[in-house]
Structure formats: structure tokens, C-alpha cells
């Protein structure tokens, strides 16, 4: 192959091994108002890089690939709805997931000549380099797939697993649990030679949609709201295509930055000391998430520069599983997140005490999350769609609590995990530090000049914390 090329060896469809005697009975999984809110959002795309310096073509095709395929088939037994498609029957008030025993998940098998060490490094590199390794999730007017996978060989270096998931079916916790379930079953096949391994309780999920109460019919209301927006992008108001995203600019670069436990401790002390001097009576919620976002967002606003009077919108997703009344199981599979939005001015974050201001605002927002009002909170967000002129949006993808670096398929933990889709959403990705010790990895995609400015603010700022 030529330098930095991708050769697709084939696209296969992996189905659950049901032994169903040819049954084609179709089942349905309803979409709740939590799911419908994300119906038109672009897919979430992640890459897991695994380093194996002795990985030959023979080893990949005779050991790695067969075990991944077999364990995926076993995993789908526990995730049957993921084999189907989102469809919208003519007389139905809203779309739903339809699946049957004959369905399966698309898996692309490929080989790359790209530099494995570069694409899996923290160093700043072209954002477009990860795109060929990422599978495309198919959505159309009539249907939408829920997950697409790609397994890519880097000869004598390792392999990557690319995962694209539909946001109307997966929130971050659900997609992470799916990947971890696949990894657990694959590792059990290899390490313990189990023919029919089972999932532990923490990976055993519930698809019971009756636990999500919707007495006011918010699900159908949200569908109608999407109707109103769909005319801007499609003449078919029942189209299941996700909204188009801005393609990754060739001048954009990707980089990963780390806040160590010691960095976070210093940031916490700095914020606490500032509010002690102010004699503030409010007890701040200074979690790792709050401190990370406060510091990173301030660096991003400074790196953008420009009009200090511009509006800055900060958004983050809060898991509502334990905030609903009554609370639902933490193993609920599906969307159960609410996006909290904060409005600030760029000058607030450009101030000397910008980190302290951001930390206080984020702290107040998290403390103010209600165990009720999920529908109202999501409803308010529809008015923000299309509101982009002169505004800097700052959002997050992933979480430092997901434990993505625990995803071991049997050949060791990942060398690197990337959230590829931030190159189209503008969010920053969060993950626990793969080095352990309570640190956080932050991934960004920015214009090259803006990335250089961000790196300078990020690194220099930590010297004076």
C-alpha cells in the first residue's frame, strides 16, 4: 500500500448467535423523550488503539479477528436491539427501534499504513488522520443504523477498534458499557477459554423503557420540534438522517493534554483560597470535572482571543438516572442525560480570576441540578439550535468516570482512546488518565494557530497555579 493509505479488506455483518431456528419475528424498543432529544444529532465516534509490536497478518487474521467477531456475536445476545434499525412507520407518532434475530452489526475490516505511533500519540497532529479509521454510521430518510464498527490492522504495530454510535440509542455511559461488555467477553474467551462466558452484574443492562415516565407526552412533542427544524435541512420532515455537520477543516489539528492529580489539587486550593478571601458562604462543588472544565475552558477562550464582549455558552451533560423520581437502575441502557447550559461573557473568563469564576459557575450549575424538570430542561435547549453567530460554544464529550482505559479485550489495555467526533462538534473530550493516579486526559480539535495558543496558555498557566 502507498504511504498513509487504508485498504478495506471487507465489510461483514456480525449477528447474535441465537440458534433461533430461522425465526424472523420482529421486536420493538421504544424511544423515550430522552432518546428523541438526540434523534438528529451526529453519531459519537471513538477509537481504541491497542499496541502489539509482534502483530503479523497471520496473527491478526487467525487469532485477533476471529476472537473479536465471536465475542461480538456473544455480546449482541445481551444487546439484541443494537442489531436492528431506527424506523418510523407511516402511522406511528414517533420513530422506534425495530430488530429481529436475522439482524446484525456492520463491521469493516481494514489495514492501514499510517504511522501508528503518531496517530495514537498525545502530540498535536492533523485531525483528519483519524477519519479513515472511523466507521461511517449509515442514516437515511427511511432508517438509521445504531452502531457501526471498524477493526484496523497496523502491521507489526497493533490494531484499532473504531466505534460509531447513534446518539438516540446510546448516551456516554451506555456506549461505554457496550464496549466494555464486548471486551469482557472477548478476554474471557482468550484468558479463561470459556465457551459461553457471561457478563458480571455491573455489565448486565436493563432495556426497560417503562421506568422513564412521560405523562405529558414529551416524546411526541420533541418529535414535532424536530419537524420544525428539519425543514432547514431536508424537504422530508420524517427523515431519519442526522443533521449535517461541518466537515473537519484541513487546517485543524488534534491534541491531548493532561491534568495530573497534583495539578488538580493546586487548582482546587487556588479556587478555595479565592473564595475564602471573598468570605463566600457558598460551599463550592469542586469535583475533578468542575476543575478540569474551568481550567480548560478558560484556556480555550483566551486562545480564541477576539471580542471580549462575545457570548460564551458552556454545556455539559448530567446523568439523570439517580436524579429521576423514583431513581432508576444505574444499568439502564439508553439516554438518560440532560444538558445543562451556562451563559457567560468572554471577558469573564479572560480575567485573571477566570478559572475561579468558571469554577463557581459550574459548581452552582451542578448543585442546582434538579431531580425533576428533565423535560423542561431539554425543551429549553431547542431554542439554541441555529444560534451560532458570534457565540463560542464550549462543551464536553465523555467523562473521566467512564474508565475507558479499562477496556481490555485480552491483549492489554488501550495505548490511547480518542473521541473522534469532537472534530465535528467542537466539544472537548474527557477521560481518566491512562497513567492512573487520578489525572484527566483532555482532547481538543482546533485550528492550528488556536491550538498553539491553547497549548501555551495551558502549559504556562499550570506553572503559576
From TrEMBL:
Report the GO molecular function annotations: acyltransferase activity, transferring groups other than amino-acyl groups
Keyword terms = Acyltransferase, Coiled coil, Transferase
Residues folding into a coiled coil are 257-284
Q: Which domain of life is it from?
A: Eukaryota
Per its UniProt record, what Gene3D superfamilies does this chain match? Chloramphenicol acetyltransferase-like domain (3.30.559.10)
Pfam families named among the record's database cross-references:
Transferase (PF02458)
* Protein name (Swiss-Prot/TrEMBL): Uncharacterized protein
Native organism taxonomy: Eukaryota, Viridiplantae, Streptophyta, Embryophyta, Tracheophyta
Amino acid at each position: 500500500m502507498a504511504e498513509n493509505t487504508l485498504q478495506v479488506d471487507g465489510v461483514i455483518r456480525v449477528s447474535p448467535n441465537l440458534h433461533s431456528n430461522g425465526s424472523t419475528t420482529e421486536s420493538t424498543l421504544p424511544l423515550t423523550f430522552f432518546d428523541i432529544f438526540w434523534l438528529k444529532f451526529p453519531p459519537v465516534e471513538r477509537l481504541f488503539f491497542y499496541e502489539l509490536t509482534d502483530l503479523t497478518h497471520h496473527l491478526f487474521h487467525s487469532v485477533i479477528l476471529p476472537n473479536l467477531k465471536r465475542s461480538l456475536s456473544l455480546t449482541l445476545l445481551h444487546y439484541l436491539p443494537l442489531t436492528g434499525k431506527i424506523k418510523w412507520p407511516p402511522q406511528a407518532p414517533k420513530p422506534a427501534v425495530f430488530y429481529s434475530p436475522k439482524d446484525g452489526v456492520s463491521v469493516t475490516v481494514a489495514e492501514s499504513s499510517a504511522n501508528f505511533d503518531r496517530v495514537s500519540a498525545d502530540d498535536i497532529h492533523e485531525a483528519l488522520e483519524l477519519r479513515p479509521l472511523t466507521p461511517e454510521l449509515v442514516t437515511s430518510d427511511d432508517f438509521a443504523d445504531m452502531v457501526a464498527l471498524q477493526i484496523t490492522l497496523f502491521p507489526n504495530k497493533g490494531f484499532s477498534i473504531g466505534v460509531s454510535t447513534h446518539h438516540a440509542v446510546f448516551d456516554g455511559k451506555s456506549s461505554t458499557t457496550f464496549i466494555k461488555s464486548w471486551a469482557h467477553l472477548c478476554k474471557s474467551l482468550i484468558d479463561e477459554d470459556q465457551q459461553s462466558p457471561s457478563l458480571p452484574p455491573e455489565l448486565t443492562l436493563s432495556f426497560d423503557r417503562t421506568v422513564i415516565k412521560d405523562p405529558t407526552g414529551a416524546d411526541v412533542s420533541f418529535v414535532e420540534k424536530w419537524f420544525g427544524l428539519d425543514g432547514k435541512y431536508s424537504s422530508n420532515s420524517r427523515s431519519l438522517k442526522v443533521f449535517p455537520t461541518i466537515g473537519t477543516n484541513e487546517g485543524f489539528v488534534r491534541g491531548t493534554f493532561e491534568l495530573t492529580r497534583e495539578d488538580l489539587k493546586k487548582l482546587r486550593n487556588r479556587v478555595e483560597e479565592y473564595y475564602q478571601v471573598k468570605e463566600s458562604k457558598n460551599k463550592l462543588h469542586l469535583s475533578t470535572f468542575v476543575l478540569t472544565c474551568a481550567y480548560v475552558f478558560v484556556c480555550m477562550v483566551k486562545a480564541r482571543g477576539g471580542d471580549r464582549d462575545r457570548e460564551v455558552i458552556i454545556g455539559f451533560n448530567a446523568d439523570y438516572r439517580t436524579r429521576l423520581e423514583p431513581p432508576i437502575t444505574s444499568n439502564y441502557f439508553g439516554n438518560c442525560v440532560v444538558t445543562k447550559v451556562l451563559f457567560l461573557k468572554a471577558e469573564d473568563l479572560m480575567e485573571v480570576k477566570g478559572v475561579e469564576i468558571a469554577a463557581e459557575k459550574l459548581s452552582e450549575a451542578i448543585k442546582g441540578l434538579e431531580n425533576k424538570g428533565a423535560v423542561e430542561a431539554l425543551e429549553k435547549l431547542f431554542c439554541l439550535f441555529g444560534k451560532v453567530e458570534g457565540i463560542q460554544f464550549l462543551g464536553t464529550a465523555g467523562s473521566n468516570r467512564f474508565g475507558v482505559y479499562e477496556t481490555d479485550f485480552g491483549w492489554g489495555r488501550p495505548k490511547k482512546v480518542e473521541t473522534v467526533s469532537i472534530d465535528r462538534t467542537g466539544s472537548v473530550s474527557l477521560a481518566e488518565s491512562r497513567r492512573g493516579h487520578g489525572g484527566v486526559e483532555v482532547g481538543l480539535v482546533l485550528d492550528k494557530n488556536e491550538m498553539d495558543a491553547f497549548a501555551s496558555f495551558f502549559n504556562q498557566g499550570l506553572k503559576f497555579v
